[in-house]
Amino acid sequence: MTIFYFTSTGNCLAVAKKIGNGNTKLISIPQVVGKPDLAFADDVIGVVFPIYGFGLPKMVKKFLETAKLQGAYMFAIGTYGNLPGACMLNVQRFAEQHGYKFDYAESLLMVDNYLPGFNINDQVAKLPEKRVDENLARIIADIQNRKTLDATAGIGWRFMTAMIKRGENLLVNGKQGQRYEVNQNCNQCGTCSKVCPAGNITVSDKVIFADQCEGCLGCVHLCPKNAIHLRHEKNEVRWRNPDVSLKEMIAANNRK
């Protein structure tokens, strides 16, 4: 089994690790996207990614566009914190447009790390009702049993997803990081640069954000000094999945 993943605060890496159960090749999408000859074959191939605004992170979309994936059984898992929209339906259609098929497509409700929209304390308090472990156990059993599952979404969700993605394409232009604020707590440790999946951050005497930001908020959540802030964040509480270490996050996303 080979699982490709994109992670910013650890949710998707934690899911990929649990699905793989130590007997799987885990490949970080930021480490391979953009490379030539992206051809992968295995008996089972999976892709785990966060759902951003009812859609895919730009880097994940690029990977699915350019990679040649071949497996006897293939699955896609999207993690989300509020609503998944029609994302998984669109992912299955997108894959078929590019010459392969996800036999199983499912979404998993977890902690939402989008700070302008959600209070992390509230998200953590809601973990019992999100039933993450229970739902993930079901997904793992489905994959082990090679279950097939086609995603569905009503016309309302499909319309709403299309409208939100159209607006997001205008707003998510790679320059989001340039709107982040870095306060006096910053000691130029470079963690933000190391966990950025886009390689978008340079640290010298100050933190510099270029124009390739994925909007994943990994730099904001994983800063050891809590020095990076969004203008409209709900509070200063941050999130890293407890099943994933900062060292693992750096290994997954450091492209320098």
Any key phrases for this structure?
256 residues; alpha/beta; Rossmann fold; Alpha-Beta Plaits; 5-stranded parallel β-sheet; 11 helices; globular
Write the layout of secondary structure elements.
Layout: E1 2-5, H1 11-20, E2 25-28, H2 29-32, E3 39-50, H3 58-66, E4 68-80, H4 87-97, E5 104-109, H5 120-125, H6 127-130, H7 132-144, H8 155-171, E6 181-182, H9 191-195, E7 201-203, E8 207-209, H10 218-222, E9 228-229, H11 246-253
Parallel strand pairs: 1-2, 1-3, 3-4, 4-5
Antiparallel strand pairs: 6-9, 7-8
Structure description:
This protein is α/β, with parallel strands linked by helices. It has 2 domains: 165 residues, Rossmann fold (3-Layer(aba) Sandwich), CATH 3.40.50; 78 residues, Alpha-Beta Plaits (2-Layer Sandwich), CATH 3.30.70.20. Helix content is 36%, strand content 19%. The protein contains 11 helices and 9 strands. A 5-stranded parallel sheet has the order 2-1-3-4-5, sandwiched between helices. A two-stranded antiparallel sheet has the order 6-9. A hairpin with a 3-residue loop joins strand 7 and strand 8. The radius of gyration is 18 Å and the shape is globular. Keywords: Iron, Iron-sulfur, Metal-binding. InterPro entries: 4Fe4S_Fe-S-bd, 4Fe4S_Fe_S_CS, EFR1-like, Flavoprotein-like_sf. One of its GO terms (molecular function) is metal ion binding.
Outline of the structure:
The chain folds into 2 domains: 2-166, Flavodoxin domain (Rossmann fold); 176-253, Alpha-Beta Plaits. With 256 residues, the protein is α/β, with parallel strands linked by helices.
